[in-house]
Amino acid sequence: MRRPTAPLTVLALALALTGCGAKVADDRNDASGRPSSRPSGHYPVTVENCGTRTTYDKAPRRVVTNDVGITEIMFALGLEDRMAGYAMPDDKGDLDGLPWKAAYGKVPRLSEKALTKEMVLDARADLVFAGWNYGFGEDTGLTPAALGRLGIGSYVLTESCHHGADGTVRGVMPPLEALYTDLTTLGKIFGVEDRAAALVKKYRRQVADAAAQAPAPARRPSVFLYDDGRDKPLTAGAYAGPHDIITKAGGDHVMKDLKDSWTTVGWETVVARKPDVIVINNYGDTSAAQKKAFLESYAPLADVPAVKHHRIYVMDYAELVESPRNPAAIGDLARYLRGVRTDR
């Protein structure tokens, strides 16, 4: 689901956005080259998404989203009335108790599988909000370029932006900044800038409160994120949500040198870095209990402190991908990490 794919071209995104009254910015910039400022909620507005500036002449009215984090970004902004539906696999956890439960009840669920081009067409979407390997993918044919040829616009999740010469890696900024960027940019697109700003302020405060309680750097436990995989573990690099979640919660992310979002590494790397804690990403056909059992029985990990001392912590998928759940997840993990005593 998260394997890197081919890069999005500027032309493809420009074509894709024509369906919602949008076009690549030209003479709408000020003398400095930045998008011109305009009163809140007025059009046209110019935004930047994954390196491409685009001008919207009006707000999209029939948005289709893919997966839980992306859908909840729309809900957090109060934009459920602008949505035509969402697709979400049925392995993303319980929705009870969420502040967006009512929104989930209002917006049609198009599928319990990944989004497809046919679903988008049937929903009469004017904008698809998804990410590379969070809905968009060359292998499925659901790309901004393909949608653009159908007159349907696209917005790409910032956590999934491609970078690098060959477009095989993703991520262009720290994960929480990606969340704040998407909230702010979507606020401009839909004319809800004040709402977006209030959310960003709230989330920054939540993160700061958790970070203020973090242990001193010399005592911070090292943490490895385990998504899945037996031969090679799928994990999080510096541009995926867990990096900031672990770091702001008071942990030392052992894969912080990976300039990618979700990617695979070798088990020998995990063993060499000796994480004090392993965080399990809870989703998919393999349960968290099964993942934990594998980690505890896999011989090469026997002397890794996290396994040796039974320090394995489970978090839900929706907390770990870019989503409005990230700030609260930092607080929860911080409380756990404060109780970890390392040998350092």
**String of helices and strands:** HEEEEHEHEHEEHEEEHHEEHEEHEHHEHH
Count the beta strands.
17
- What is the CATH C level class of the largest domain, in words? Alpha Beta
CATH topology of the largest domain: Rossmann fold
Radius of gyration, rounded? 20 Å
Q: Please count the helical segments.
A: 13
Which structural class is indicated by helix and strand composition?
alpha/beta
Strand-residue proportion: 15-25%
* First-residue to last-residue Cα separation: 37 Å
Summed up, the domain count is 2
What characterizes the major β-sheet? 6 strands, parallel
Please give the CATH architecture of the largest domain: 3-Layer(aba) Sandwich
What percent of residues adopt helix (DSSP H or I)?
25-40%
Oligomer classification: single chain
- Name the CATH homologous superfamily of the largest domain: Nitrogenase molybdenum iron protein domain
Low-pLDDT parts are: 1-19, 24-41
Shape: globular
Mean pLDDT: 86
Region (Disordered): 25-48
Signal peptide: 1-25
Keywords: Signal
Family: Belongs to the bacterial solute-binding protein 8 family.
